[in-house]
Amino acid sequence: MLEAYTLNTAVGADSFVPFNSIAYKKGCSAETSGTSSIALNKCGVYLVTAGGSASAPTTIQLYKNGIAQPQSQRTGESVSFSTYVTVEENNTPCPCTSPTVLQVFNTDAVTFTDFSIVVEKIA
């Protein structure tokens, strides 16, 4: 399980939300990879919950391996989503060397007073 967050962070238009701090990390199934990516290292099902408060309306969306996940798109000043992500062995034959990568895309230039993400392996 991983909980990461950022506080009072300006995020440019058409860019990924950075996660500057780790609140909680247990195990090695999910870990940060750089400032704006989370690597899923083990096959299974993950529950991903993210959200925050922005200085102006914006749209966020979860990306999995560079592909937008339509069920996770949200618009507003207070945005959040909760969705499931699967990591199948067929997609990543060796998850430790080629992990599934998650990122949260932001469409408008805003300042997030807070933004957090929780990734929990549930199966």
Element-by-element helix/strand order = EEEEEEEEEE
Radius of gyration from CA coordinates: 14 Å
Helix content: under 10%
Q: What class would the helix/strand composition place it in?
A: mainly beta
Tally the beta strands: 10
The CA-CA distance between the termini, in Å, is 12 Å
Please tell me the overall pLDDT: 92
What global shape is seen?
Answer: globular
- Main beta-sheet strand count, sense and barrel state: 10 strands, antiparallel
Poorly predicted sequence stretches spanning 5 or more consecutive residues: none
Number of H/I helices:
0
- Portion in strands: over 45%
Description:
The protein is mainly beta. Helix content is 0%, strand content 64%. The chain contains no helices and ten strands. Strands 1, 2, 3, 4, 5, 6, 7, 8, 9 and 10 form a ten-stranded antiparallel β-sheet that branches. The protein is globular and about 40 Å long.
What is this structure's SSE topology?
Elements: E1 2-11, E2 15-16, E3 21-25, E4 30-32, E5 38-40, E6 44-64, E7 67-68, E8 74-87, E9 100-106, E10 110-121
Antiparallel strand pairs: 1-3, 1-10, 2-9, 4-5, 5-9, 6-7, 6-8, 6-9, 6-10
Task: Please provide a brief summary of the model.
The protein is mainly beta.
Considering the chains and any ligands shown, give keywords for the structure.
mainly beta, ten-stranded antiparallel sheet, 123 residues
